[in-house]
What we know:
mainly beta; five-stranded antiparallel beta sheet; elongated
Amino acid sequence: MAQTPFRHGHDWHRSQPTPASPVGVQARNPFQLQPGTPLPSADQQPGVVPVHEVGVISVQTLHAFYEALPDPSVQQLTKVVEAHWPHASAAGSILSLSTFAVPAQFVYILTDVIYYATCPSSFLEGPPVQLEAYQLTGLVHFELTLGDRQPMRIDSSMFSPYGDANTPAAAASGWSMLDQVFGARRGGSFALYARSSQEVKVQVVIDVVPRFSLTKLGAHFHGFAVPEGLFDDIFRRIKGGT
């Protein structure tokens, strides 16, 4: 039987009372306006909320948030991995950021993966400076594997910032942007998942050695840790199984 992963805090396992309503506002159904609440006028502009409705909608949103909290066995997950930039780097070399295994009897559902890099400050003893989205494009790319498989296909053709107009673009198969959410750009939800005991590996491939100094590269993951039995039950229901 799956065990709930360790959580911080005093007496977190005890059931907590429903959060009190804001002062002066009676508890209500978050999806139903109370009798007597004025409805929007017919000529109301789309996206504009009348002042007299702001309090009602705020309470609805607050209660809907608490009702949408996950099962107590589901724990929110954040993991950060980093590596120092090697001083003796060469094109084609691979820098390992991290390799970690999913705990037994759990599934990691990753909703966001974001890569970042920093370089030294131009001021003496100044803090490191974070690089922006495309400043390493054509120089390095990130690779992510879940259980020895690529979670999605990424094909790119990138130019070295140090090449001339006749230098051809180089083919790569990894994520090349910083501070951008990893994944397909679409309106719906998108998530990756790694099952119990599978390894999650994060690597950086150096395509062209940068001519400027770097201090470190890293990635942070956000998502949920879900008991494997619960995950399988939800997966079967989504797929129409029993």
